């Protein structure tokens, strides 16, 4: 019986050997790939991050340019067939009418004008981070008066989609920068706390408890309200991210500290200590790499908190202020009921916030599950 | 147990002192003071304060004293006389302002807390006992969506639906005609048509997270031997689940109930601002914007004190509920 069974699972053996010799990161990746939602979220976030980085290219119009004759225009519908004939993606022109009774401006499609959407279109010129000048855009329509507004326009006739892309740059980077600040603080204090223990641990724990005992939103509001209105938007932006990080780091420090307690008594740490390695070397070379995956997962889960914080503060008018464009600032336009019922598309930055936060949560969940490849 | 409570209570005193100082510093942070803001406000309406007048106002409000002196005056008045100071913006004592709005705030917050628990506990238990069923997936999606949606966005969307499709009057707690009317059945009905939006917003926001916690805890507990023992003794599923693992899984609820104390007091600031609710939250925002120092400072102080007390209450409840914590 045993003789017959032996040669059969040769393929399985190869797979097993492959598994045993795989490097930790390959194992993490293999487990991560099984979490479909996390993989989809990862792609979504990569695309979003790229569009945010190249916002000038992706956005068809200048996010600050007023169009007096296109205020609160609804999202432009994209058609493929014109009068039963295949044309490819195109939009109809927009006809502007004023209601005789209410004097309200309404827009209707002008079925005569067919404007094919052109990809890699040369539109208004922009300067890309001051590095080079270009006028290349991902898409646009070739007409001086007509536009393609994927998400409509706001009450000054600015293209909401273009503003959303530029806002993504500010909001996402604020989240990332905030997490980096929180990461540095949390990693430093958490690892000191977890490695040394004793009274140092006690003191840092008290500090963390104290920070956590201050209610988040009023503290954010208090600190954000302290920023002078006249300050440069860039400085305000940095300070806001610092304020967000001031609270976020305690959670990260907790994760790091817990991990340190778990790893501190492992044999290989003892071996390193007996071999005469310095404390700094033991922490940075032996213990931190063992926790990298956990830290990455915790970081990913911390980003949505920052994004929600920035959005809420800016929405209240305490965070970033126009002319800076962030998703929270964009949502200020949707603050009153009348503008929402007239132009529901002004809520689209809110949808973007929800999708992004969800994606980060799913990605973080997937990473956390995959973080310990030897777990099962 | 008494020793435990005493030790915990003693530990929170330095925290309280430190917090009171920080609240005061935060309020002092903005450049300029109330007189600067007041003068700017007057300028907008076309009036001007001379430098001498400004200096006189500062002298009168004691804004020229060193910060520590101002802090000392502020905190001793609060501790010994229950006097939170005078709101320069509203021209009324801070305590009156807060008391006026506290009733409604507490009512809304406690109602929404009850709703949160009523939703979260049964749904969490169901999701865990029927893991990977259709409804479990549905609730999971709901949980993630709820966690990802900012409260104010949900409030905006609900207001829009109520306004545009249900044609009801939204925002605030009463329609204008009932605002100052004496209490009557109509007024109560009017209140209810307004109240559902804040309740739904606050309850879903809280429940989304708690469902996940409840589900995870229940899953941890369901696999344990004592559950199997209970089944083996012939108890029905309902008896087993609700009598044993649910009680253990409720631990985090108890440890967070104290945290809801400050939330009860402030309500949800952002939701309240969006929905134009006459609760304490918008008052705080206004106070911060106008640098109404005593009002904002008292607010942050009260909230922080509530948080510390809430944590204390939670710790004591947990120790009472779970002996393992008491002796750890």
From TrEMBL, chain A:
The record's InterPro entries line, in alphabetical order, gives: MetI-like, MetI-like_sf, OppC_N
Task: Give the record's GO biological process terms.
Answer: transmembrane transport
What are the residue boundaries of the ABC transmembrane type-1 domain, all occurrences included?
Answer: 168-364
**Cellular component GO terms held in the UniProt record:** plasma membrane
**Membrane topology qualifier:** Multi-pass membrane protein
Q: Which UniProt keywords apply?
A: Membrane, Transmembrane, Transmembrane helix, Transport
Note the CDD domains from the entry. TM_PBP2 (cd06261)
Top-level lineage group: Bacteria
The signal peptide annotation in the UniProt record is none
Chain segments annotated as transmembrane: 36-59, 172-198, 210-229, 235-256, 294-320, 340-363
- List, alphabetically, the SUPFAM superfamilies matched: MetI-like (SSF161098)
- Location(s), subcellular: Cell membrane
To which protein family does this belong? Belongs to the binding-protein-dependent transport system permease family.
What is the protein name for this chain? Answer: Peptide ABC transporter permease
Q: Which organism is it from?
A: Devosia geojensis
Upper lineage ranks? Bacteria, Pseudomonadati, Pseudomonadota, Alphaproteobacteria, Hyphomicrobiales
UniProtKB/TrEMBL annotation, chain B:
Give the CDD domains listed for this entry. TM_PBP2
SUPFAM superfamilies named among the record's database cross-references: MetI-like
- Membrane topology, from the record: Multi-pass membrane protein
ABC transmembrane type-1 domain span: 102-318
The subcellular localization recorded is:
Cell membrane
Question: Which spans are transmembrane here?
Answer: 9-29, 104-128, 149-168, 188-211, 253-275, 295-321
UniProt-listed InterPro entries? BPD_transp_1_N (IPR045621), MetI-like (IPR000515), MetI-like_sf (IPR035906)
Q: Which is an annotated Pfam family here? A: BPD_transp_1
Alphabetical UniProt keywords: Cell membrane, Membrane, Transmembrane, Transmembrane helix, Transport
Query: Is Lipoprotein tagged as a keyword?
Result: no
* The keyword Transmembrane appears for this protein: yes
Mainly resides where? Answer: membrane
User: Which biological process, per GO, is one annotated for this protein?
Assistant: transmembrane transport
Question: Where is it found, in Gene Ontology cellular component terms?
Answer: plasma membrane
Question: PANTHER family from the entry?
Answer: INNER MEMBRANE ABC TRANSPORTER, OLIGOPEPTIDE ABC TRANSPORTER, PERMEASE PROTEIN
Family note: Belongs to the binding-protein-dependent transport system permease family.
Q: What is this protein called?
A: ABC transporter permease
């Amino acid at each position: 019986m045993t003789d017959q069974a032996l040669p059969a699972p040769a393929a399985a053996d190869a797979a097993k050997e492959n598994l045993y010799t795989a490097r930790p990161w390959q194992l993490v990746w293999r487990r991560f790939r099984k979490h479909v939602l996390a993989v989809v979220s990862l792609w979504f976030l990569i695309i979003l991050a790229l569009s945010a980085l190249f916002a000038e290219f992706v956005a068809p119009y200048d996010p600050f340019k007023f169009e007096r004759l296109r205020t609160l225009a609804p999202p432009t519908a994209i058609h493929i067939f014109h009068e039963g004939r295949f044309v490819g993606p195109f939009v109809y022109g927009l006809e502007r009418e004023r209601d005789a009774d209410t004097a309200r401006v309404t827009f209707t499609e002008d079925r005569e004008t067919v404007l094919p959407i052109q990809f890699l279109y040369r539109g208004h010129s922009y300067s890309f981070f001051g590095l080079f000048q270009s006028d290349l855009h991902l898409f646009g329509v070739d007409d001086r008066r007509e536009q393609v507004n994927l998400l409509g326009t706001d009450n000054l006739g600015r293209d909401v989609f273009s503003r959303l892309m530029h806002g993504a740059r500010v909001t996402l980077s604020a989240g990332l920068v905030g997490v980096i600040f929180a990461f540095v603080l949390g990693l430093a204090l958490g690892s000191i706390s977890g490695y040394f223990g004793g009274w140092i641990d006690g003191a840092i724990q008290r500090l963390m408890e104290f920070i956590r005992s201050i209610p988040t939103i009023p503290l954010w509001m208090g600190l954000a309200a302290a920023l002078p209105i006249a300050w440069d938007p860039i400085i305000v932006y940095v300070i806001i991210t610092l304020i967000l990080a001031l609270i976020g780091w305690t959670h990260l420090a907790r994760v790091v500290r817990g991990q340190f307690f778990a790893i501190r008594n492992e044999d290989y740490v003892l071996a390193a200590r007996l071999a005469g390695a310095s404390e700094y070397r033991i922490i940075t070379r032996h213990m931190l790499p063992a926790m990298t995956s956990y830290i990455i997962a915790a970081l990913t889960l911390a980003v949505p908190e920052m994004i929600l914080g920035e959005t809420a503060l800016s929405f209240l008018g305490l965070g970033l202020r126009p002319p800076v464009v962030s998703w929270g600032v964009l949502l200020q336009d949707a603050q009153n009921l009348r503008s929402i019922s007239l132009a529901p598309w002004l809520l689209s930055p809110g949808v973007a916030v929800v999708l992004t936060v969800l994606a980060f949560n799913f990605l973080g969940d997937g990473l956390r599950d995959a973080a310990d490849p030897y777990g099962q | 147990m008494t020793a435990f409570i005493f030790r915990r209570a003693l530990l929170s005193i330095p925290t309280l002192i430190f917090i009171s100082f920080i609240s005061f510093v935060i309020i002092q942070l903005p450049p300029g003071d109330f007189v600067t803001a007041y003068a700017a406000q007057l300028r907008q309406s076309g009036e001007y304060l001379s430098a001498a007048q400004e200096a006189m106002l500062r002298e009168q409000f004691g804004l020229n004293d060193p910060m520590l002196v101002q802090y000392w005056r502020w905190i001793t008045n609060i501790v010994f006389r229950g006097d939170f100071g005078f709101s320069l913006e509203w021209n009324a004592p801070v305590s009156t302002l807060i008391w006026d709005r506290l009733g409604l705030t507490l009512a809304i917050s406690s109602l929404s807390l009850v709703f949160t628990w009523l939703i979260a506990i049964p749904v969490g238990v169901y999701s865990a006992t029927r893991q990977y069923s259709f409804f479990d997936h549905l609730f999971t999606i709901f949980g993630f969506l709820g966690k990802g949606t900012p409260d104010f966005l949900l409030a905006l969307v609900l207001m829009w639906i109520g306004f545009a499709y249900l044609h009801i009057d939204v925002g605030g707690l009463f329609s204008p005609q009932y605002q100052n009317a004496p209490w009557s059945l109509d007024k109560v009905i009017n209140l209810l048509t307004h109240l559902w939006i804040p309740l739904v917003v606050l309850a879903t926001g809280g429940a989304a997270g708690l469902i996940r916690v409840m589900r995870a805890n229940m899953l941890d507990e369901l696999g344990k031997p004592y559950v199997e023992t209970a089944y083996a003794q012939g108890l029905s599923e309902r008896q087993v689940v609700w009598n044993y693992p649910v009680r253990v899984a409720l631990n985090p609820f108890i440890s967070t109930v104290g945290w809801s104390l400050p939330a009860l007091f402030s309500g949800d600031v952002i939701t309240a601002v969006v929905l134009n609710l006459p609760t304490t939250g918008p008052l705080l925002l206004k106070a911060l914007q106008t640098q109404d120092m005593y009002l904002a400072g008292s607010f942050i102080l009260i909230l922080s004190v509530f948080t510390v007390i809430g944590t204390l209450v939670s710790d004591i409840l947990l120790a009472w509920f779970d002996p393992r914590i008491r002796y750890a």
